[in-house]
Amino acid sequence: MKKYALRRILLSLFTLLVILLVLFVLMQLMPGSPFNDEKLNAEQKANLYAKYGLDQPIFVQFFRYVGNMLTGDFGVSYNISKNTPISQLIQTRLPISIAIGGMAVALGTLVGLVLGIIAAIWHDTVADTVATVISVIGVSVPSYVFALALSYSFGFRLRWFPMLFTAKQIFASSVLPSVSLSMFTMASIARFTRSEMLEVLGSDYMLLAESKGISGPALIFRHALRNALIPIITVLAPLIVDLMTGSLVVEKIFSIPGVGSLLVTAIQSNDYNVVISLSFIYSAMYIGIMLAVDILYGIIDPRIRLAKEENA
Amino acid sequence: MEEHDKILSVRGLDIAFRTTAGSVHAIRGIDFDLYRGETVAIVGESGSGKSVTMKAAMGILASNASVKGGTILFSYTHADGSPETVDILKKDKKWIRRHINGKRMAMIFQDPMTSLDPTMTIGRQVMEGMIWHFKVTKEEAYRRSLKLLQEVGIVDAEKRMKNYPHQLSGGMRQRVVIAIALSCNPDLLICDEPTTALDVTIQAMILELIRRIQRERGISVIYITHDLGVVAKVADYIDVMYAGRIVEKGTANEIFYDPRHPYTWGLLSAMPDLDTEDERLYTIPGSPPNLLYEKPGDAFAPRNPYALKIDDRLGPPMFRITDTHYAATWLLDPRAPKVDMPPELRARIARMKKEAGLIAGNE
Amino acid sequence: MKASAQQAAAPVTDGTVFYPDDFELKNNADEIRIDSNFAAQSFWKEARIRFCRKKSAVFGLAMVLLITLLAIFGPGMNSYTYSGQDLSRKNFAPRVPVLEDIGILDGGENISTTTGSKKLNYYQLKKLDNVYYWFGSDTFGRDIWTRTWSGAQVSLIIAVAAALIDMVIGMSYGLISGYFGGRVDSAMQRFLEVANGIPRLVIVTLLLLVLSPGMLTIIFALMLTEWIGMSRIARAEMLKLKEQEFVLASRTLGAGSFFIIFREVLPNIIGPVITQVMFSIPTAIFTEAFLSFVGLGIPVPQCSLGSLISEGFNSFTTHPYQIVPPIVVMALLMLSFNLVADGLREALDPKLKEM
Question: What topology is assigned to A89-256 in CATH?
């Protein structure tokens, strides 16, 4: 178990380094220089370069870069907000994105689990068909289509929820965006849960439990769910990533001041620095989540947690 | 012995399965009885329906099964000693789970690796049944489970209680499965191919274990197997099944020393034997019928070198040979020609008798 | 076993007819050796039957074909082009010749103003009796029907091209990695894990910043991200088949590694591979649409479903009909491919325990 965890951690760190390298290389390829050159003369430029170590050889620059990124010093923005430290731009936005994203994950996972369990227990009945249809639609239709549809029907027509995000009605205006984001997660988890549950329900140990006389909820929860849920954790990491992608457009549609809409704006205004910094943050989050999920899985599944011992 | 010692009585059992390929008529009319303390072996090839019969008795048939007819009468006594007989096919699942499964009838399955829940400790799995049926306290359940594990021959039982299934060897896992089966003191133990997935050396140990438990607790055992070697060691009575029907039934001696059905001849001939002088291994030609199709007549006819013309038209009834020995083959009809078992088989049986006589003589 | 309740101890005599030759031996020594019980059915035929039995899969397939046909022939069905602008006819509601007589799609739309909603019909206002825009026109007066189906064309081309290239790359990578095993496999898998650690979003965004946007760039970006899934499947299948005897037989006959990989094993894994391709097409459509929405997609005047949605977004509260066709087409497309892929997966690998 320890070896397993150690290997995963090392791999994650290595991946992060590779990403930083890629980002660094891209930085060098970007047109323009790190500072607003228009107002500077040659001497000031030279000074600034020296200060930020831009006259050093590439390797040194890279190490500095790595150090900076890892400590949160992302440099400054060019176009969105001239010379504002990017970390400042991100600071207020990151919590909002994480909050809405978190709600979406929680909602999606819960509803998805329930749908999947229902579909599996009552498989090949109406309930199963309904749940499956919902799942397929949820997986096929992009989150922003849902966002638009929900925004139009519940926001514009029915006026149940505000169409745009406002800090004054944080809760109410987070509902539509979270629901839109959660659809894909919910549908994916529902499908996966259904197939895992079906496989578990048909297994020999379920038969043994039934032959012992166990029935009803005890059977489902104690035996089936525990075994079916373990693999579900493995799909959680990619789902969270998809959530991050979806958040970009959803944030734009609902005008949520989060990291996603920042990235969109940065892309559209060619603010490379911001794009690269945000890419790094997304990558780091992704790698972190994957690592956490891997280790969590190792803890939950007794087959990995406890190695085979000597036996008679 | 009297009537009231009968535990299980199956009459006219008829079961079909709805599959995507159509309706598979798996059980086509089965009668058999089991009395207290006996060991019965149900023998047949894969697909003959042996497991399905017992799963029907336990009420754990797959959801696409449909029982088309028959009765399964099970007799037991309540806690206060009053006797009771029920038709299991008429009871709903919940009732069966509550009153029969585990408590009066228990089953052990073929593959101990997949029979145990991989995410639950051994201890919990053994204790689960007791707590469910008898509502004992956890401490009491723990105590009893420990004793059970020791009874089935697991050393350092305390340590094993905390282990997970994947940490045990195959033989140990099967012992655990047996312990689980015994945990609620059933009257009937059904063993579905209990040794097929185990090494030969462990096989003997498990069979010996089951036999010992049977003697000590006075329970009845049904073995489901395709391995005649296993049968020879443990069975009092043998039912030979083919294509969803019982084709021959009798005591172990009768079946081994005086088989009458050509299928039984085939099974016995196919057992490899060190003393065989033949140059070729005998196998029953052809393969078992596809139960999707209903064919009139004797299901074994297409593979039967001793088939009669009537076998294509009419299925044979059960013919009585002795009070305990019956076979369903037209060869036993008085009008049928005198057909004897293949000479190689006759020679082998003579050998077996001589060995048995020798062993019995060398006391 | 006691005899008490045993019946049928005597031969059947209740009216059963017996023929004189009933009790003769059949002497069928030759027949019995023939095994005729289980008719062999080709794997593909069975798979096709299973697929067709699943109504959702058939529906999906029908939709895919329908949309593809419309994508090819749709733009030509009327006289408009996808880029021809006519600013005097901007923001017209949909008007369809036959249906307008029943009252739907007659060119009228409800505009909500500060004083309540009003029904406007620009066709009538401008006295354009013979002008029809089947899906309406956009803010530049372009025909949405033509643009939708041209956009569908572009989206489909991108998605299928990307999926197919992915298939080639991913499959080769996975097959090679799985076949050679050992150090080669270890190294290739490590590389894959690192590549997998970089979020798709990041790769795609960065690529599109560096290279100029266009169909080829998008296909390239998609290609870089999807091959991982395909290679996993290919490798898993290879590991399953590697030890089978036909591979061993081929090797003993002297076949080289690449021959074995591509001529022996590959044809056997077509099933899961096709399924995976079917699954990756909706992902590609989605990613492309997402890129367009964000501004990194197809440059004007060419359009794709994503760019149409992006354009329509700006006016979706005032003229919702502008965004509906591309959204419906895209959602249907993704849904249909998913249904087909689901059906394929079940058809090629049924897992149901039936007894």
Answer: MetI-like fold (1.10.3720)
